[in-house]
């Protein structure tokens, strides 16, 4: 006789936010580097109350069902333009109803860094609000293309 365990019930992010008022998880990918690294930080998301503001990090559920955690770069009348901190181009416009939550903070190891922390505000000033980062991203992309061909 083979014993099997019952299937594990997993809840969606939406269910977790609705029932607990908070969601803890990890990110996948490099689009939010250098703030969030692939599978290395635990993020804390809370439901968005009202409209998101420029520079806030929001969780979007795309029409294809994929979740994307990116920063608001422009507030539109009916939605937002978002972009990963490690990206040169903005995403397609996001409708208001696609935004599920906003980043409340993240864990670096066992240390919680809330978005109100001086460390996070310094990151905003140095990386997010600094137009020189686009020069860095463009140069890095150019170097990658050149060295990839060899």
Summarize the structure.
With 150 residues, the chain is of the alpha+beta class.
- Low-confidence stretches are none
Q: Could you state the order of secondary-structure elements as H and E?
A: HEEEEEEEEHH
Rg to the nearest angstrom? Answer: 18 Å
Q: How many helical stretches?
A: 3
State the main characteristics.
single chain; 150 residues; alpha+beta; eight-stranded antiparallel β-sheet; 3 helices; globular
Question: What would you note in describing this structure?
Answer:
The chain has 150 residues and is α+β, with helices and mostly antiparallel strands. It is 25% helix and 30% strand. Strands 1, 2, 3, 4, 5, 6, 7 and 8 form an 8-stranded antiparallel sheet that branches. A hairpin with a 5-residue loop joins strand 3 (57-61) and strand 4 (67-75). It is globular and about 50 Å long. The model has no long low-confidence stretch (mean pLDDT 88).
Helices, strands, pairings?
Blueprint: H1 13-20, E1 23-26, E2 42-47, E3 57-61, E4 67-75, E5 79-83, E6 94-95, E7 99-108, E8 111-114, H2 118-128, H3 132-149
Antiparallel strand pairs: 1-2, 2-7, 3-4, 3-7, 4-5, 5-6, 7-8
